[in-house]
Fold each of these.
Amino acid sequence: MLPSRIFFDNFFDDLDSPKKQNSMMKCDIYETESEYHIEMDTPGFKKEDIKMELSNGYLTISAEKQSKSDDEDKKYIRRERVYAKEMRQFYVGDIDEEKVKAEFKDGMLLVSVPKESKEKESKKIINID
């Protein structure tokens, strides 16, 4: 018999992303010339359940829902859909949060993040006094 996996758990498992594989909020990320695009599945969540925050170069997308207890007449044998919370975080750099666009459509969150504008290197002539 093989030992349990808990003996081999790594302290940095969260960085190793096995939990991300089980996440309901799976996403695809692609880029165009001027933007990065995130297409994220958000099954079971409504637009009101989703929050986006941009802080210190990280874009955090979280979703939380709680089932209402208005069905006291039901006698549940098993109840798994009472509460759900998911979160994903992406490093996007130092960008203007006003330029980030998001749209929620058919259970999918579509986010457009502008690429950092690279200032053209300019030369400045310095006069010597």
Note: The CA atoms of residues 68 and 74 lie 13 Å apart.
Amino acid sequence: MVKLSERMKAVAAMVTSGGILADIGTDHGYVPIALMQEHKIKGAIAMDINQGPLARAKENIEAAHLQEYIQTRLSDGVQSLKVGEADSILAAGMGGELVMHILEEGEEVCQAASELILQPQSDIRKVREYLREHHYKIVDEDMVLEDGKYYPMMRVIKVEQDDFWAKLSEESTVACDIYGPLLLRNGNPVLRRFLVHQHRQLTELLKKLQAQKQSEAIQKRIFQVKEELQYNESAYTILGAIKNAGI
């Protein structure tokens, strides 16, 4: 049996049972192998832009005797995936800009899938904002702490419109983009730890900035840090607003 990291276990747990998975940037192919071994999916397409990782994935798939169920394809994003070919599309362990690029370039393929499981490593706020503006609804979220790093992840579906956002203030909407609407609603324990960790970091940074010789650039950064602190400190108040909106 393939052993997944805590991060990848959480990602794999978001995949709905019984379908075909397309794993974008599959690397070693561990997630589709693990899900097949758990009999959670019917099959998978392991995809990567580079030949090296794809060759490693193929070796691992063959070692697990799953080549009949898991294909490997060289692909830039979902370029080599046909519309409707996968029920679940997974994009994990890559930068947020790349995640958005994949969604943009492969719009038809991504929107045809039943669900997208996304675990961007950076630009989380931008990714959530992109999803909101392009009518993707976050239906599940999780966050894990592994090796000192915080990893948020989400399962999203395409919708015609999401009336929820009209119920929230601008401040609450931004907070949802920053921290995750379902992580906030559920009071995710790892998010709580992250809020404490982030508050400490921002407070220390603000002290250092205020102790420096002031310039336009320093003053601009102080303003940004104070704004980040404001959202951090109001997270629990905003949580109440989200609950009241009925999410």
Note: The beta strands are 20-24, 43-48, 70-74, 88-94, 115-120, 136-146, 149-158.
Amino acid sequence: MPHPSNRIFKDYKKLSQLANSGTVFVAFDTETTGLRASNDRIIEIGAVKFNINGEIARYSALINPEIHINSAATAVNNITDFMVKNCPPIRDILPKFVDFIGSDSILVAHNAQFDINFLNSELERNNFPCIKNLTIDTLQLSRWAYPQFERHKLQYLAEKLCIPVSEAHRAGDDAFVCMQLFLQIVKDKTHPEIAFRKLYDIVKTLRAEGGCPWDRNQTPLSIRRDLMEESFEAIDAITRNDVPHIREELGDVLLNAVMLSYMHEQSNQFTLEQVLNDICEKLIRRHPHVFANSSGKSEMKASPSDSAQVLAQWDKIKENVEGRKTSCTLDEVPEYFPPLLKAYKMLKKAGKKGFEWECEEDVKAKVLEEWQEVEEAREAFSAKEVQKSPFTVSDGNSELNEKQLHLEEEIGDLFLSLVNYSRWLGVDPTIALDRANRKFYKRYSSVEHEMHNAAIPMDKNHLAEMMDFWNKTK
């Protein structure tokens, strides 16, 4: 049972604030004659005082328990009766250890409940006040920080995190390893947390009374285009391997995601914390081959060996665990996706269900077939009926309407076949078209700039000059 004076720190979201505020910690460990604090005794205490910058001081003591150390205890920690027979009893050690800890430090221990219970039981037996320091249990902390690990015993964690161990199950060394584990978790988990918290606080300030008028006026609907544009700018930077711009554009994407989350938080719909927890839970749920505690385990027949098997397992989890099964596979594609993206997603989902061409040549042949059908639909128009601007219907000319709608349909089929061909070639058509748009913009703006400098009008009569400048930009 937990000792009544025990206080275990569990608010890991504040770990960064705690660690970086100058707090002094004491990692400690005890070795005992058994597992019951009421009957067994402490035979060794080891401790390391430290802060975020590292070790400050150490304490270590072997203790004469004044009872026999049984073979089971010795098998664990290699401490024998002979080793402790001339050592001081616990009543002499406790005041020194409590003084080393201090009343303001935060204790750190692995499976802290065990060590705290033993320590306070020894204090009570010897008529000393119990310690009431706030305590961090690195066993629970590591489960939070590293859910991907199969086990969380101290020596296992030391091995996984490359923390050196000299004498496992000896109090001094275990305390030192515990300190190293704690500092590693702080390093792994709190530095991004600090930066993310800073971004969140800035967004709150911008949206607050007296903040920025533009930011305060934005709504989830108004910010949609910003999110889309920043995402494409990040994709473009990644495609060009422009590392400084990748860093900048990913920041802009994060800003929009945090801004949108906080807008919904302001209207009491959901919080940013819920958004982050939801994606963490989803990742664990959909990767049962990685996370032992995944609720998607029921859909894992065997550990997947390639990406295709992972995606197949993913779909089963979505359908059977998350309850996302639909009457038609294509219903999983959002209705209001941009048409190009929607076409790509629908074809991809249909292909995963086996509705697919046999080979690349068949896909290419379909593109050529659709192109021919566009040409046939185009040939139905007379020269005077050709339209330079898109339209769906015209007044009073049902025959022309029928021709135009048929051409529109065939061009739509051509686009769909081109999207499918690009998918077969491993190209996302939305990203490819975005690159083409950016390339066209860059080259055309250069042409316009050169024409302006040369004082040449931008019109059909000077197409040759424009094409010369165009070719120079390539």
Note: The radius of gyration is 34 Å.
